[in-house]
Amino acid sequence: MLSTSVTGYNHTSAAINRFTVNGAVGPNLGPRIGGGSEVCCGMIPPVWKPGLRAIVEWEKDPKSNFPEKWPPLGTDEFRAKLKKHAANYSHHVANVEIPKYDVAGSLKVHFLPCDQVRVSADNIKFGEPDYPYNYPMNMEEPKVCTSL
What we know:
- The chain is mainly beta and 148 residues long.
- The protein is built from one helix and eight strands.
């Protein structure tokens, strides 16, 4: 196995408070943010094999981008408000296929509307023509969710 960095791309209006891919921790991601930071370390096989999959686990804050006045940090009022706010967080797990790669690279996790997720482990950068998941960063949540 090869040690590699983990990065994320959040194509949604919700914050990704935390995520893991095959147990490796990724950075937290604000709404519509991606590729800004990498953390170490995930593991991938040096040679892609059919059936290669990743288990992604994440916590989502659907109300991360709303203007609201918060009490001062560290106060009882702040802790009470945070507890009430955190009750809206949702937890998700997905087992997804990793597409074929010719050269192993970093683990890149894409969070999409409708709690969909995609993972790549190639040496191609987001935005390059051969990259498998060039979704727009500003994707809107549809009224009815279907598979991508």
